[in-house]
Each structure stands twice: as structure tokens, then as C-alpha cells.
Amino acid sequence: MIYDLISWLGSIYQWMIIIYILLSWVPSARDSFVGEWLGKLVEPYLAPFRRFIPPIGGMIDISPIIALIALRFAVEGLLTVVRSLIG
């Protein structure tokens, strides 16, 4: 049960990040209610990655990709811990 919940929440947050990134391609989308709401939930997680990973060529921001990979590692690590505790 807890295993499924952690997996589900990790997937939901991953999709929130992906949708937020896609919204950046539409200029007015981030100003919408959904864009602002996603920004409040996703930006605190993305900010440290953006601080340490500069854009390539000044334009291409790969920090969200690294953030998604880190999130996946964190979720899988947490699932491994839960699996070992449950037995």
C-alpha cells in the first residue's frame, strides 16, 4: 500500500514537472491559473538545479531533465528502503 502510494506520488510530481516545462513553450500559459499553480509546486524543486546547472549556449535549460532524473532516483531509493522494511 505505502509502496504504491510513493510510486504514484512520484509519478504525479514527475508529470507536473513535465507539464510545467511544456507550458513554458506557450508564452501566456504560465500566466494562467494552472501555470501559476504548477509554478508554486514545481519551482521550489527546480530552483536548486537551475542555480547549479547553467543553460547550454545561454538558451537551452537542461536542469529540468537533471531534476527529473534525480526525482526518479530519489523515488526508487525510497521504494527500495520501504521494500526492505516491509520485507
From TrEMBL:
Range of residues in the leader sequence: none
Q: Which UniProt keywords apply?
A: Membrane, Transmembrane, Transmembrane helix
Cite a single Pfam family from the UniProt record: CCB3_YggT
- Superkingdom of origin organism: Bacteria
Tell me the protein family, please. Answer: Belongs to the YggT family.
According to UniProt, the name of this protein is YggT family protein
Where do the TM regions start and end?
Answer: 6-26, 56-75
